[in-house]
User: Fold this.
Amino acid sequence: MRLSHCHNFHDFRTLARKRLPGPIFNYIDGGADDEVTLRRNSEAFNQCDLVPRVLTGVKDIDLRVEVMGQTLELPIYCSPTALQRLFHHQGERAVAASAAKFGTMFGVSSLGTVSMEEIAKQYDTPQIYQFYFHKDRGLNRAMMERAKASKIEVMMLTVDSITGGNRERDLRTGFSIPFKLNLSGLWQFATKPMWGINYLTHEKFSLPQLDEHVDMGGGASSIGDYFTNMLDPSMNWDDVAEMVKFWDGQFCLKGIMSVEDALKAVDIGCTGIVISNHGGRQLDGSRSSFDHLAEIVEAVGDKIDVMFDSGVQRGTHVLKALSLGAKAVGVGRLYLYALAAAGQGGVERALQLMKAEIERDMRLMGCSSVAELSKHNLRFR
Assistant:
């Protein structure tokens, strides 16, 4: 299978599976426990139908949206995801360059493999910095100061990961950073030699946002240990309110799944929230993001920018979320499979296909701009 044969999310996933060692593919692909929420995230869209209008005189399609103080040329953005240079040696550079080409936001993760400074300097795209809340309050402040110095536009605090989800696929293969693979995992690496050659012949793997704070190389720590030992499960609203005040700019909380929490985010001065269950990777059995979107938008949509992610695979999924009031829609696995399949060329193709899908679907809906989408063009079964 070639990149030119990839026409949708599932095609990129298939090609990524061919290119990646099994443990790394399953790290991207998997969710928590029985993966019920992972599956439900995409299935939820199928319970909602679009109601198109005809003869509306659609000529030009305007996909621009305003969110978190940024103007985006597309209503989708590249959500921050960890460890991207494990999936392809270009990593975040490929994704940032692609986001810049399509005029949309790109998120750098605390567990990113390229520094926020390099991304901010090299790529002209609105940038999100996603970070976690650490027990070391000085470290939290230092990370925000570093982001300020890099001219990061949007701060995104992930609030649904005070401990890591139970990702049993990773336990079965022994996937971790540093690698601690079992025999099955090692065999799957051996069957994908090109991945190994690329990994060894390019720059050394690192986590530049955390290198000064976490030893990922000597076996003393791992990603799992990072979540267990360094993140602060006692984080509360007062802690976050202090951070919002210190940042004094666009600040959003990622991982909001209740109306009560959305209202609290408004109260402490956040400018945005992301309705997200972390792609089904944290609390299995939690509600799908899409199922909860309308309720939260109704409560706070006029007070704060509501963004949305988890389970998005199609342009119609994006239109359904926008119709319910999401200001913009985050994609993660969509571009990660494409990155693993073919680096920057893969990510650009994935974004181009998604843009074309959304434009075509807007025409078929009889809508010229995102602003014309509303809950009136949806019906739930």
Q: What stands out?
A: The longest strand covers residues 250-256. The mean pLDDT is 92. The chain is about 45% helix and 15% strand.
